[in-house]
Amino acid sequence: MTDVNRCFRLAARPEGMIKDSDFSWQEEAVPELGPGQILVQTLYLSVDPTQRIWSAYDSYLPAVAIGEVMRAGGVGRVLRSNLPDFSPGDLVYGMTGWQTHAVMEPSVRGPRKLPPGTPPTMALSLLGLTGLTAYFGLLDVGRVKEGETVVVSGAAGATGNAVGQIAKIKGARVVGIAGGPAKCAWIKDELGFDAAIDYKAEDVKKRLGELCPGGIDVYFDNVGGAILEAALAHLAMRGRVVLCGSIGDYNNPAGSSGPRNLMNLVIKRGRMEGFLVTDYADRFGEAIGDLARWAAEGRIQDRVDVVEGLENAPAALRRLFTGANTGKQLVKVADG
Amino acid sequence: MTDVNRCFRLAARPEGMIKDSDFSWQEEAVPELGPGQILVQTLYLSVDPTQRIWSAYDSYLPAVAIGEVMRAGGVGRVLRSNLPDFSPGDLVYGMTGWQTHAVMEPSVRGPRKLPPGTPPTMALSLLGLTGLTAYFGLLDVGRVKEGETVVVSGAAGATGNAVGQIAKIKGARVVGIAGGPAKCAWIKDELGFDAAIDYKAEDVKKRLGELCPGGIDVYFDNVGGAILEAALAHLAMRGRVVLCGSIGDYNNPAGSSGPRNLMNLVIKRGRMEGFLVTDYADRFGEAIGDLARWAAEGRIQDRVDVVEGLENAPAALRRLFTGANTGKQLVKVADG
């Protein structure tokens, strides 16, 4: 029985893009299980922009303390259990952190058992906080209606691609903004978006005007900055801007310059609203039911982008901020 | 019978602060009244930030055409009438424009008769679009509740002072942001605001933190820019930002730099929403009833700041952008 836990502990508060040296690699004995605890072997880790926030400062969660194992959601298999509801071999998800072996005890952040038949990666992606963020952001905050025009940025990212696919299921017209021809081809040709804008090659504001002649009813913002400003410029009457977090700002504590055209919210009677998916915890069951059914019916695809090896977790997190990932970024820690 | 109409016609699209030379003074014969028209002698003109927009570009209304009489709301007395509902001597309000004699015909923008006993100036201020903007912005968009903390910028301006007074009537704690000690003393000592911040002398962000330790539940924004950013920094959980138009931007077509901290809308699950009071036209009666009753009960004051003479209309409009006015800016055109 291997009782060595390999982990990354936070070594320094990152400044700008995170560096490998912001984390310290440790190999430690797995502690004895106490009453009410389980030992979980991590299989996959979720890689999310918000982890950059957790590493740096207090927000909706306190910052990870220096010396603490880096916080992250993950899926793993139960190795030992002092809890009656969990047995060795069970697949569970929750806040495992950046480590190979997590000692977990019941809390709002897991562990929870995966529904039978759920692929471990889908539990972190479409059926995890990523898919739930897309679901509640688009449907509850954005209140999209059939026939409306939806624009989503970061459209080839984890949340963005789900937003676009859910919007199509709801009968909306969908324009995705992504970086590069491969991502644009994927969302358009594979996922069925009505149009794609390559922000690296095209004038986003001009293209939005051409592609959304009736204006944008719902803009789902994953990036902030100039693209948010371009979308505001084409807001439809009573348009909604869903703020999910602006990835462009996470490595820039001063924040990027905000949109200069908020006056358009007045002229168009628009609404801009932020949200956190965790506020919808009491409705997760309803959403997971919809998402799992759409996946089973082939109406929504769940693409994951897997980096192998816990030792590459910092590099995997950087991939989000350079736009290297297509679909949900994961780290594979061990074979299931 | 004097049949000369003195008026300002738009001569040029203003750039930056409006100049006298953007308007051309004309003395013209009053045209013969057609069927369904009335002739109104203007008594007072409303002076509003949005007139700067009307002079420059299409927005929620088309821009005033070059050569057209400058658009403005006003109150006047009927001199002649070809409409059965209006008689000489009636006081009416509507879009008179910058002129001494307006030929008006029934439309959504007036003419309408003043309710009996209404002072002509109050019809343009507390009981006009100014007071209605405060009323619907605070109560319907901001949804203020008893015991909440409300912050309003431009607090000694026409809309701002009404926002603060209505918020007090609704049981909120109110902090006003205004320019200079006289305005701050007025809103605090005369109008009953709980606190005032002089943005010309104090660090607004720091003071908001001190004065709103539980955060800002409703921020009513009249100015945009750095003050909007400061308010966002102190937004309470589920705080609302009411965008009424940012006076700082009206002379700056590129727009001022937007707030760099929209991420706070995500962290605090906040909402920022723009509105135009004209959308509430079917509820004006209800609001005017409340406002008139509060005024009669002495619970709300209506302060007007009157510039004498139509020839000073451009200068009166400039006063809004230099912060010279306290309360509602009007131009007096003739004795009633």
Automatic annotation (TrEMBL), chains A, B:
Q: Does the keyword Oxidoreductase apply?
A: yes
Q: Which domain of life is it from?
A: Bacteria
Task: Report any Pfam family annotated for this entry.
Answer: ADH_N_2
List, for all copies, the residue spans of the domain called Enoyl reductase (ER). 19-331
GO MF annotations in UniProt? oxidoreductase activity, acting on the CH-CH group of donors, NAD or NADP as acceptor
Entry keyword annotation includes Oxidoreductase: yes
Q: What are the UniProt keywords, alphabetically?
A: Oxidoreductase
For this protein, the record's SUPFAM superfamilies field holds: GroES-like (SSF50129), NAD(P)-binding Rossmann-fold domains (SSF51735)
**Sorted alphabetically, which PANTHER family does this protein's record hold?**
ALCOHOL DEHYDROGENASE, ZINC-CONTAINING (AFU_ORTHOLOGUE AFUA_7G04530), PROSTAGLANDIN REDUCTASE
**Protein name per UniProt:** Zinc-binding dehydrogenase
What taxonomic ancestry is recorded?
Bacteria, Pseudomonadati, Myxococcota, Polyangia, Polyangiales
